[in-house]
Specification:
mainly beta; about 5% helix; 5 strands; 3-stranded antiparallel β-sheet; two-stranded antiparallel ribbon
Length: about 130
Amino acid sequence: MADKKVSQLTELTTTAAPDLLMIVDDPNGTPASKRITIKNLFGAVPANTNFSGAKNVITSANTYYAGNVSITRTLTANVVKVTFGSTPSSNNATSAGMISGQIRFTNTHLYIAVSNSIVRRVALSDFS
């Protein structure tokens, strides 16, 4: 492998936890080529990662998040996709399994948890 450039290596299109990557440790000090597994690289990222500070920006043409995403300040986006949900079981957010700020919609209503105890609903109608 010492006689090949990285760009000449076969491309890997899927990864597994034990796969190895080459990494340069301490590039601004005493650089050393080392290896790291995919598991060790991404396993160091906590499951519940929080961004904090005055301004955190994630820029991407297509960024998708699966699971629960919590935004405690302001979300600015060209498009926000809210997934079709189910009718809350009651107007009590806690009983309905909702938290303050959560939005659900059905074919007939939009539901917004305005606090951890209150769900408001708006009827949807056609417009022209």
